[in-house]
Amino acid sequence: MIQYTNQGNKDTRSGFGDGLTELGRTNPKVVALCADLIGSLKMQPFVDENPERFFQVGIAEANMMGIAAGLSISGFIPFTGTFANFSTGRVYDQIRQSIAYSGKNVKICASHAGVTLGEDGATHQILEDIGLMKMLPGMTVINPCDYNQTKAATLAIADYEGPVYLRFGRPSIANFTTPELGFEIGKGILLNPGNDVTLIATGHLVWEALKAAEMLETDGISAEVINIHTIKPLDETLIINSIQKTGAVVTAEEHNYLGGLGESIAGLLALKHPTPMEFVATQDCFGESGTPSQLMEKYGLNRNAIYQKAKVVIARK
Amino acid sequence: MSTITALEKTTTQVRRDILRMVHKVNSGHPGGSLGCAEFFVSLYFEVMDFQLPFAMEGKNEDLFFLSNGHISPVFYSVLARRGFFPVEELNTFRLINSRLQGHPTTHEGLPGVRVASGSLGQGLSVALGAASAKKINQDPKTVYVLMGDGELQEGQNWEAFMYAAAKGVDNIIATIDLNGKQIDGTTKEVLDIGDLEGKLKAFGWEILLLKEGNSIQAILQTLKIAKSKLRQSKPVAILMETEMGNGVDYMMHTHAWHGKAPNDEQLALALAQNEETLGDY
Question: Are A114 and A254 in contact (CB under 8 A)?
């Protein structure tokens, strides 16, 4: 199996913050808005270096989305920053009408997605945001897997014309992707070739999928591991090619199984290549308070869960 | 012919366009459209400085945003009459495959529209973003936005009112169409907005009262004063009292024509009250 080295645990939101800081220095069209969460989204260096291109809007996310749409009209590239919950459900109609339907080049950057937000509990832990955003026509949806990939994605979306939802998180997790893997919007990454089952993961679950593949390897099972960072548009070719080879798939994401990556892949397979499939995802429930690792364990979002689902799906072949 | 007489003649043609558009498809919102005809004509034929053909970016141009998008008939008529797109295209209002959607949108690329509106309460925020962009770009032009009074029941407006004053967005003129009516009745009956002037003053806005919102002379005068108040650290609002359905006697003094089209007979009656000055499309 291909070995990936954890270069040291880091939070994905810092990947966003560092990417934004770099954009502040290199792209004069980039402007940023924040709804009272500068520290949480690691936006302070951008604020300090580009005060004239930063907009503190206060706790008023609906207004923030409208202002971002307005800023984009003259050619600026607005990056909005708040928690995933307040970036999506709270402002869905503002995004729908003023940004998506209006075709505005706004980057909706959403931190603290999923249960790993932790102790604040379910009011702040959105598990429905991928579904909400992928249903909007023209919206690109990206959920990077570690610090390096989040930074790469932040840089990439500035060069892409159109509305984007960029989803990242709070906890420190393994930082393992390398520049050699590259980052291209809409292109999945084959992390490990295998023959018996395909593990397709996004966000915080990608490292866990690699670890699950190692566990399967000790059982003599060869797992192909794919990182899908762009949930929409989906890299259909990479997915279909893999599943034609392995004949079984497990998807893994920190999101409700309804509306998430797994659902997108299930739809693809139903149309093009029906295949036994299992979901590692939350089961249509809200989260709760706890530490990130306790929550990932309780809601079945870790390497053990992926390993077990892989056994189940292989038995269904 | 004086400027005002010419604008008044344009206005009667705009009224005809509005009435004929909504009649043809038996849908749309004539009441608020007619009430704002003088305001739109004043803005687009006299006050605003813009270039044609339309460019989305609008650099070094005055920009206009319509927040209460349901009064699209008056917006479309004035844009067409001002040369943004062919007047004949008004024939396609609300028809399938048209750029003239029920509510304005950029989606089909209609010249003159910079954001979709219709779901209420979003226009002021977008206008504030556009105004902020002008500040960064040191673009000296002005951003105009029109909002309905019923629309102020949406909370996002109050986020935007607070933001504009707190951040000193002083290159914007927000006009609020006070026609006092909405779908279910008067704004007082449905959800009383209360002392709007006092509220906006308390929010830190410069307020101008326009009692005769259907008088072109009064509109021009008020817009002139409003422009003189710009760039003094405060956003400027005009509280413009209009008569919904203005120019058609049976559509005035009622909310019945908010979202209802006239039948053949009613159309004839309405057109007889508004002279064809620029030629019907």
Answer: yes
